[in-house]
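Quick one:
INPUT:
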């Protein structure tokens, strides 16, 4: 739902830029096939949220394992996004798309066949890497094939399909779990990808243009490795530390994250000075408005990733909702998020930064309303009693998050737009995975063994959520004031 994808920047031919005709029927079919990757990448980001309690029961998954099943996908996705875009430039978008789709299908099968929590975590990370290979090719193909005048509509469809995927992940995940298809239980939420992936792979090979590729560039493998290592050194100990009793290795990893990040940064600067193309463009780190908005997006995603994870646990473990009910409760919020996202561009253009800031206020109000409802009664609370709060949250999230991204990209030059969008995408997924690890730790600590007091856990993390949303809105406001 909050997963906004911005493709790599590709030079278009003059014929494409000047084309007055709309996209051809073949290109429309190409778009329909390519959008299966957008749908599946978003679907699998959210579908596992409603399966957490089933995973705990069937695999005896610990709290840390549940965090990694959810955040591991987002982490691997974040780590591979920039690399995935560059692979398409180097080897061609069709070839890279199909390779990513096949890998996604295989890793989905491995997720569905996992016999233990550890196997599932590894398979989920591989699935996230596969998504990072296939998803960036969608907007790359749009940019390369669609006339400039028609790209806006195509990218709009990409965003809409991502939103639909997030809703379907939560609702269809609940349906599959409730129906217990063929007695598969939670495995069905992963195995459903297999037939879709097979059909999409064949269709993509037949319908995507065979020779579309961007300019060949030398790939910054060392920079990509440094970014991935930094994220891993933070995420893994934060996710496992509480359950493992914070052994020495967790502190060693956390301490090592800073020097690895510093060494990666030094390499990025040296590569740029030699005329290379680093994964992280140092010029962007001298752009104060962009960095401020990047920090705002990071604060928002720290909240949002953890919010979706802990809300799913609250609904099932704390309020006794079935997977189907939990999935259905998410739907009104997702619809309001989509509504807010569609309205945010026009409202921000007409009235300025006041509407995104108002969106932040709506989220804080929704969090307070939900916390009040959870603490007002010692008795049973219906999951549907949270609907008014979730409607406020959904609308506020939609009004706040897209304008932050739009404002950040408006502060960069055309020459750095590709790197800027890649950093935004990576920051979104990385912050989401770190939010799940950090705030999930707080939620589990307050909720106690077996999540016996999940309502108290949700109330505690909601206070942190409110602070993060306020920070995101304040940073958005501060860049507007300096503009």
């Amino acid at each position: 739902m909050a997963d906004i994808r911005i493709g790599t920047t590709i030079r278009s031919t003059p014929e494409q830029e000047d084309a007055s005709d709309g996209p051809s029927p073949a290109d429309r079919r190409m778009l329909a096939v390519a959008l299966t990757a957008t749908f599946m990448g978003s679907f699998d980001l959210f579908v596992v949220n409603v399966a957490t309690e089933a995973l705990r029961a069937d695999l005896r998954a610990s709290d840390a394992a549940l965090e990694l099943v959810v955040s591991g996908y987002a982490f691997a996705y974040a780590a591979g996004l920039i690399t995935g875009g560059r692979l398409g430039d180097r080897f061609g978008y069709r070839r890279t798309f199909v390779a990513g789709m096949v890998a996604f299908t295989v890793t989905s099968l491995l997720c569905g066949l996992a016999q233990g929590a550890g196997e599932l975590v590894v398979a989920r990370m591989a699935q996230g890497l596969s998504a990072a290979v296939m998803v960036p090719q969608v907007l790359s193909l749009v940019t390369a094939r669609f006339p400039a005048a028609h790209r806006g509509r195509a990218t709009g469809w990409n965003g809409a399909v991502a939103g639909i995927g997030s809703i379907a992940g939560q609702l269809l995940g609940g349906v599959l779990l409730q129906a217990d298809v063929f007695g598969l239980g939670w495995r069905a939420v992963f195995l459903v990808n297999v037939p879709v992936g097979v059909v999409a792979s064949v269709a993509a090979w037949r319908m995507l243009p065979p020779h579309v590729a961007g300019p060949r560039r030398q790939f910054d493998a060392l920079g990509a490795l440094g970014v991935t290592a930094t994220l891993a050194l933070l995420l893994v100990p934060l996710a496992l530390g509480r359950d493992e009793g914070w052994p020495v290795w967790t502190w060693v990893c956390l301490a090592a994250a800073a020097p690895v990040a510093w060494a990666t940064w030094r390499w990025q600067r040296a590569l740029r000075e030699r005329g290379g193309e680093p994964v992280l463009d140092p010029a962007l780190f001298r752009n104060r408005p962009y960095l401020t908005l990047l920090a705002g997006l990071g604060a928002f995603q720290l909240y949002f990733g953890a919010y979706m994870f802990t809300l799913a646990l609250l609904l099932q473990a704390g309020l006794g909702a079935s997977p189907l009910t939990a999935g259905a409760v998410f739907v009104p919020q997702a619809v309001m998020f989509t509504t807010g996202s569609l309205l945010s561009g026009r409202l921000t253009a007409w009235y300025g930064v006041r509407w995104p800031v108002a969106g932040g206020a709506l989220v804080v109000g929704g969090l307070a309303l939900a916390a009040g409802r959870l603490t007002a009664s010692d008795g049973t609370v219906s999951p549907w009693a949270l609907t008014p709060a979730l409607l406020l949250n959904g609308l506020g999230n939609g009004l706040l998050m897209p304008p932050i991204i739009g404002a950040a990209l408006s502060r960069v030059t055309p020459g750095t737009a590709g790197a800027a969008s890649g950093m935004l995408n990576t920051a979104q997924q990385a912050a989401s995975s770190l939010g799940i690890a950090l705030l999930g730790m707080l939620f589990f600590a307050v909720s106690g063994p077996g999540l016996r007091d999940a309502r108290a856990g949700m109330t505690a993390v909601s206070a942190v959520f409110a602070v993060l949303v306020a920070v995101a809105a304040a940073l958005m406001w501060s860049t507007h004031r300096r503009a």
